[in-house]
Structures are given as structure tokens and as C-alpha cells.
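DM from R.C. (forwarded with permission)

"hey, sorry to bug you on a friday — could you get me a structure for this? deadline for the figure draft is monday and I only need the backbone to look sensible"
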Amino acid sequence: MFKLLFAGSTSACFELENDRPYFAPETYTIYLDGKEAGRKDSNVFSLFGLKPGKEYTLGISLPKKAHGNNDGADQENSVIRELRFKTKEEDCALDVRSFGACGDGKTDDTTAIQTAIHCMPPGSRLYFPAGTYLTRPLFLKSHICLEFSEGSVLLGSTERESYPIVPGFVKNLDGDEVHFGGFEGLPITMYQSLLTAEYAEDITIIGPGTVDGNAQNSDFWTGFHEFPAARPRLFFFNRCKNINVHGLKAQNSPSWQFHPYYSEDLCFYDIHIHAPKDSPNTDALDPESCDRVNIIGCRFDVGDDCIAIKSGKIELGQKFNKPADHHVIRNCLMEFGHGAITLGSEIGAGVRNLSVSQCYFLGTDRGLRIKTRRGRGRNCVIDKVVFDNIRMENVLTPVVLNMWYNCCDPDRESEYVWSRDALPVDERTPRLGAFHFRNLECTGAEVAAAYVDGLPESPVDSVEFENVSVSFSDNARPGIPAMMNFAEKRCRLGFYMDNVRTLRFKNVKLKGVSGEKLIASHYEELEEEDFDVEG
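My reply, with the result:
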């Protein structure tokens, strides 16, 4: 019926168990210890303002017809299920105002907030009451919790000189490299992010307040190509463990909003990440070379990719060979963005064991987007990827697997990148393994149903579509399905498959396609079962 995802000292997150992407079958009522605590229409919901170390009884009242009862009974005749849970114990809670923070939106509260963080005992919580706390970048430490209450805003400084420059790595006294960060797959110098944790563990950040990068009022979205260092992110976690972010609203980052980097055991529950549609490189959540990442019940509307899973360019991929591994993305809503779920393009160590399910994509350019290219390296292997039970509306191209991606690199327009000849397989050649796309319902597509373009010297191993329907918009406009050199605009293109060893289609339906349902070349095996075209 429903289960507990997360319980902190003052908040908890729960998930309804059903097969609906993101939204519950019906609006339901939440009860806490017998008292009504709100109404929700999404599969994941949260409670805030709880007491530490206390047992609670959670009840949910769902209309009977939400359980499949179609006997005409009144919708108010509901079924109530209950669950007992206990919040986490904590050693102490501190008010940030006790350290001199004003929260008036004008006073620089950096010193007060950073002092409070330094003073916090392990296992304590720093509470931000309602107010706007103007701050320069802050460093976090292990074994703490930050709670941003309803009406509280942590507001980033707009002055670029307020953001210290941090080296990507330095050499210690023994001559070994110690890494502190990077951007777009390289260990390069960067501006410190608004909230940074380096080599830390056991950090919890909860809402329902807001962390606002305030980049729209700075120069971080204009002229950044001339900056001496990579732009800051809103949150940066380098080589951290056991990070929980729950119920927070994050917005207007100078670049990527959340950037976990070479970290493990990360959970993001019921967070909302926002940036204007035209804001540059404002990806919502980009875990890079991380292990065991859960992204559940989150909502994204940003100016670039909603989620981009990464593992560095070839330098980091060969040096550390740490793939992005064991990621679960479930019950998320993506509203606008270049790609809803993206792998790459900086994936020099590859991606494996990825599960994406019960998600809802609305108005993104691409739905499920994989981008790589020659030069990402032999460790760039993407395999064991499953996308299941996805609903897409007005997504221009629902599925893209592109091994010819031509952005973010100095040699992007070189013949090495764009040549259609089969080049030698060497230490620079990436590989795509097995991909399973199941139970996809896509309406309002415009450019292509799916666009899969492998390398002639390194074809995609296999692509399987099962229980997939794609219908095109009556007002479809031509567009570029995948970013590559010499790309042609397409409109209402069916399934385009080039350089894929094994293709399987089972119970696939197309509506409104222009031309052939399947354009396939350079494959070894093709299986079709119930692959139909309507209209």
C-alpha cells in the first residue's frame, strides 16, 4: 500500500505502492495520529515539523475506486491504511539566529551560519526559521543536519568575487594528487559552490524551505565563457558518504544545481529543483562517478538536463575507473529541460545498473537520452539499463541513443568525431551494451519516436522495445533528434536504428508517423512481434 522511504529527526517521506507514474490514482487524505495532515495527489509525500525520537501512526484515506473498485460506490467511501514509524533521535537542535544570523535578506549572514556549522556537535540539527539568509559560499561537515523551515530561504550572493576559487586537485607533500572537484568531466579549477562538502559523511538537508542560488541577479548566466574558473554549483558533494536531501526546494543555481562527485549512498527524496527554461547549464541533478544513488519522488523544471548521470571524461575515466553504479530513479516528474533522464556525455568510466521507473516527462526535448562519442574511452561502457513504466507528454523525441555527440569538447567538429567510416577500436572507443525500454506511453511527439545511432566500429549491443506506444502531435514541427555534426532536421520520424547488433520490438504501436515505421541499417538480428502503425 505505502512504505517509509526516509525518517529524519523532524521529517519523514513515504511512497504509495502502485503502477502509476508519479501521480496517484486519486487524491488522498493523510492523517497523523488520527488528525488530518493534508491532501496529496502524488505517489510520494512528506511530513515536516515532527518531534525527534517519537513514534507516530500515519494513515492514508484513498477512495475505493482508486483500488480498482468500479461498483459505483461514492468516492468518499474510502479505505484507510495505517503505518507506524519513528523519527530519528538527535543530540541537540540549534537556531541559526543564536549565532547572529539576521535573516532579513540584506545582512550578510555568512559568518554567523558558518560559525554555527563549525560549532555543531555531531548528531545535531541547525534550524533556519522563516526569513531570507543572504550568504556567501558555505562548507558543511560530517554528522550534521540542516533544516530549512517553511518560509526560510538561503539566498546566494550575486557577487562573483564572493566565491573563492578552489583547485580541481593539488599535490600533497608526498607528491600524490588530492582531488577537490571539477566540472564537465575534468578536474579543473572551479568557483566554490554555495553549499560544499568535501570528504564528509552523514549529512542531512531537509526542507520545506528553499536554497536559492540567485544567479538570475548575477553575471553567472552571462559571459561565463570568459570566467577564470568553472561556475559554482548550488550543492557540491565531493567524495562523501551517506547524504540525504529531503523535501527541499532548490533553484537558480549558477550552473548545475546538485553535483555529487565520487560519492556513495546518496538519497534525494521529494525535492523540487527549478530554473528558467532559458538558463544555461542549470541541470537539476548530476551525480558523477557515484555509487548507490536514489532519486525518488522529485520534481524538476530547469534550463538543461533534468538528471544527467556522469563519470568523467577519458582522463578521469582511465585514472579512477569509477563508473556510475546502482542508480534508482522512480516516481519523478520532469517538466521542461533538454533531457529528462540523460546519461553523459562525460561518462569516461561508464554507467551500469540503472533503473528508471514510474516517471512522468512533460515537455522535455528528449525523454530518455544517452550521449557519448569517440574519445570517451574504453572504460566508457553503458550496460544493464532498464527504463520501465514511463509516461511522456509533448516530448519531442522520446528515446535517443547517440554515439556521435558533438558538444563540450575542443575537437567537437573534427573528422575523428564525425567520420562514418569504421575507425580502429582502441583505448578511446566507447561501448553501449543492453537497453530495455518497457511500458512507455508517449503522446505529442514531434521529431522522432526513437533515434539510436551507434558507431560502425562499436555498435550498440542490443535495444529492446516492449509495450511501447508513440503518437505524434498533429502540429509537429521539424527538429534535430540528436546533437551531432551534420545533423538533419526530422519530423514524425519512426524508429531510426543504425549500428545496433540486436533489435527487438514487441507490442509496439505508432500513430501519425511520416514514412516507414522502422528505418534500420547495419544490424545483425531483428525481431518484430505486434509492431503496428495507426493513422
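R.C.: lifesaver. Helices lie at 110-119, 314-319, 415-418.
me: no worries. The longest helix spans residues 110-119.
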